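Morning F.,

Quick status update on the modeling queue. The single chain you submitted on Monday has been processed. Sequence for confirmation:
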Amino acid sequence: MKLLFKPLRVVYLIYAAIVFLGIMFLILPFIFLASFLGRVKGGNIVFYFLRFWSHTWFPAVGIMVKRIYEWDRKDKTPYLYVVNHCSYLDAALAVQVMRLPFRPLGKIEMQKIPFFGFIYKQSVVPVDRSDAKARSRSVREMIAVLKHGISILIFPEGTTNSTNKILQPFHNGAFRIAIETQTPIQPVLYLDNRKRLPSGGLKLNPGRCRVVYLPPVPVTGLTMEDLPALKQQVFEIMEGELKARI
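Structure tokens below.
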């Protein structure tokens, strides 16, 4: 039976890749035109094309997205989204399920990928973790983005979690920015992405992807002295919810 499914899996992966690239090349000219409209307006337009990409690709490969809301958001103020990072599928899902406008923080190395790198450059706040000055520029850009009413998405674990732990320790960056800008933090959970696309392999699996939006954590009045406690608070909230739901 395994021998029968192996060629079917290869065909499925090839099909998923062709659809992924096909949609990418379809929207690439429109993203190129939007890039002339600036980082804010043009970037916001880019995300509508990326959302089309995600809304098309996920059902085309048999992955159904389910949103679970633990709070009723009615305001349009920007938030700092913190999301668990367990799969390379996370970024593709984010452009479908996060409220627009928003910008993710992303690794600058991804800009080197042909064609995709151009789209990536237009849609993220890039960060070069090997360069202190570059990290400072990224922080300034995130603060500027928030002032334009655009939310920020950060994976506080810093990298894809390939361990057997439900969460890796959080870095300080997201919580420092939240306190500096007095922007509320909204924890978001991706429950099934590791099952759909395990890290470190090419084993895409059809099925469901559940996204849980947890109540925001206010930061009003907090100072940098409160950063460790805030980071621990958000970590415990997300870890507890993940343990209860996975």
